[in-house]
Amino acid sequence: MDVLELCKRGGWNDEHHHPWDTVIKAAMRKYPNPMNPCVVGVDVLERSVDGRGRLHSHRLLSTEWGLPSLVRAILGTSRTLTYIREHSIVDPVEKKMELCSSNITLTNLVSVSERLVYTPHPEDPGKTVLTQEAVITVKGVSLGSYLESLMANTISSNAKKGWAAIEWIIENAERALS
């Protein structure tokens, strides 16, 4: 199944007070950052430009989930290093970046699929809108709804950290230029 097909439901919107081009450049350089130290490695597996001028990137993220001991006990694992596959498409003509990610570790216990779409604000080109969706599925575990809720809260918290990271990257890039 294609990564893009995994991203289907649930979500929220937010906006950056920077133009789309600026936000996308920062989003492509988002890791590592001090706001989300759980991402400990990023490997570009493939990057290409298609016939329509869109940049396709496939990356592997190494993350340290830092699951609480109660959650590790419920899941029956001591493993905290996990891997996430990420596929993004940046369309500079339509000014749209779509990024889908899903875990490839512990999928027999929990699946997290996330979709982010960055577009210019429809009324203010100096701003960028982010639409974010996530699907969390806990499999064959008692207290599954508790774990789904915990994961949803973590994703929401990480989304805020992601915004802060993009702001941090933009500010540091502007400081480096001045």
UniProtKB/TrEMBL annotation:
PANTHER family with a match to the protein in the record: MSF1/PX19 RELATED
Name assigned to this protein: PRELI domain containing 3A
Sequence ranges assigned to domain PRELI/MSF1 in this UniProt record: 4-178
The organism of origin for this protein: Capra hircus (Goat)
GO cellular component, one term: mitochondrial intermembrane space
Any one GO molecular-function label of the UniProt entry: phosphatidic acid transfer activity
Pfam families linked: PRELI
